[in-house]
UniProtKB/TrEMBL annotation:
WD repeat spans: 15-58, 59-106, 175-200
InterPro entries listed in its UniProt record: WD40/YVTN_repeat-like_dom_sf, WD40_PAC1, WD40_repeat_CS, WD40_repeat_dom_sf, WD40_rpt
Keyword RNA-binding listed: no
Protein name as catalogued: WD-40 repeat protein
Lineage of source species: Eukaryota, Sar, Rhizaria, Retaria, Foraminifera
Keyword Repeat recorded: yes
Keywords noted in UniProt: Repeat, WD repeat
SUPFAM superfamilies assigned to the protein according to its UniProt record, in alphabetical order: WD40 repeat-like
Protein source organism: Reticulomyxa filosa
UniProt GO cellular component terms: transferase complex
PROSITE patterns: WD_REPEATS_1, WD_REPEATS_2, WD_REPEATS_REGION
Amino acid sequence: MFETFRSSSKLINTFIGHTDTVRSIDYSTFDGCQFTCSGSTDNTVRVWDVDNNKQIQSFNGHLGNVYCVKFSLYYYHNYCQHVICSSSADKTIRFWDFKHNKQLQKFNGHLNSFYGIEFSPFNGGRYLCFGSGDKFVYGMLKHQNHYIFSMDMKIINNNNDNNNKMNNIGVIGGNGYTICSGSDDKTIRIWDIETTKQFN
């Protein structure tokens, strides 16, 4: 299957502009237009117009490596804003309005770098989960004594079980909202958001 994919695939676009390693990318559609955003160790967050094959914004507010970038569908659907969230080694998480070229919000005062970020797949993406160099998945869970570099949030549904019994990665507490975190302790852990407990 991989060979079939490789032989039939073709390069569509190449975006050039970062001056150092690209650490994170995300893709979304706003107002019928396709966009990609990127975060880099050149400390910038950039936005690319996929349809027109060009960079449309560059945000230079971070003072350290940008580790993760995500488009926010919550801001788009609820406030008609075109927003990117970014996490950085400068110990901040920032929200950028790329349509109006401005920073909307900054979370700072933290003692460690922020790494992976993820918007919730429930409540329209209203909640943001993020991992930090202080070994916590905020604001609920501790991942042993190691840095947390990546994460994902999912709803695990056990449709074959109306009694909400736990399956192998299970539904605890009934809602099935989970966080999966990856760390430099060489483990991947799955957590139940409602109970803040790790699945066994």
